[in-house]
Amino acid sequence: MSAPYTLYFYEHCPFCTKARMIFGFKKIPYEKRILLNDDVDGPVRMVGRKVVPILEEDGHFMPESMDIVMHIDGVGTPVLTGKTRPEITSWLQKAAAPLYRLFLPRAAAAPLPEFDTTSARAGFIRRKEPSVGAFSALLEEKTEELTQLNALLKDLAPLIRSPEAVNGELSTDDIHLFAHLHSLSLIRGVVYPAEIEAYRQAMAVRSGVELFDDIAV
Ligand SMILES: N[C@@H](CCC(=O)N[C@@H](CS)C(=O)NCC(=O)O)C(=O)O
């Protein structure tokens, strides 16, 4: 029997990582459909706008990553039962700007299925480059942003209570934190303290969302 859940997503999309993670955490099978980045009609037909992730279940379509996470966590016994911590939210906010400045140019160049056509890749570059500035400068090996991110990782290491869950028990903090670390894995030159390395590897296995380490640039 085919899975009752279909998830439409892009591999580089951090919101999509969040939606994918909950299926792995709960060991719930789902059909994966990776859309081309310039497919407008598909998402518009499903949810009225160009956005991913989208969950399809029994002919109904649900956008919004955290709505999908909470919906799937509610199937059977919930797993995201731990408390969240403001220190994690604050760390995520600090890391976001340097992370996306380095992440976007690398995503634009990566061998990912959502960029399988020239028009899909070119459209992504056209839309995203103005938001962070020239991709070529951000692709250099030593950037201010990389220094910032490596310093931020040193701050994060002592906040990790267990490789299995940042706060000791799985919570939505793990969903948000691993989505950041997943994006970070596309950036070469990032130095992971041991606690973070153990955490991101354990989360990748448990969520079923592979890191980008092998294609990092
Ligand atoms: N609030 C939404 C945001 C989703 C979102 O911004 N997705 C991006 C991809 S990372 C998107 O579809 N942007 C429109 C586009 O690519 O044209 C969520 O949490 O699911």
Furnish the topology, listing elements before pairings:
Elements: E1 5-9, H1 14-26, E2 31-34, H2 41-47, E3 54-57, E4 60-62, H3 65-73, H4 86-109, H5 118-132, H6 135-138, H7 144-156, H8 172-184, H9 194-207
Parallel strand pairs: 1-2
Antiparallel strand pairs: 1-3, 3-4
Helix pairs in contact: 1-3, 1-8, 4-5, 4-7, 4-8
Bound molecules: glutathione.
Domain GST N-terminal: 3-80
Organism: Gluconobacter cerevisiae
Pfam family, one: Glutaredoxin2_C
Describe this structure in words.
The structure is a single chain. The protein is α+β, with helices and mostly antiparallel strands and 217 residues long. 52% of the residues lie in helices and 7% in strands. It is built from 9 helices and 4 strands; from the N terminus they run E-H-E-H-E-E-H-H-H-H-H-H-H. It has helices at 14-26, 41-47, 65-73, 86-109, 118-132, 135-138, 144-156, 172-184, 194-207, and strands spanning 5-9, 31-34, 54-57, 60-62. A 4-stranded mixed sheet has the order 2-1-3-4, with helices on both faces. Strand 1, helix 1 and strand 2 form a beta-alpha-beta unit. The N and C termini lie far apart (40 Å). The model has no long low-confidence stretch (mean pLDDT 97). The structure holds glutathione.
Instruction: Describe the largest sheet.
Output: 4 strands, mixed
The CATH level-2 architecture of the largest domain is identified as Up-down Bundle
CATH topology of the largest domain: Glutathione S-transferase Yfyf (Class Pi), Chain A, domain 2
Helicity level: 40-55%
Work out the oligomeric state of the chains in this entry: single chain
Strand content: 5-15%
Averaged pLDDT: 97
Radius of gyration: 17 Å
* Count of alpha/pi helices: 9
Number of domains: 2
Give unreliable regions as ranges.
none
- What does the overall shape look like? globular
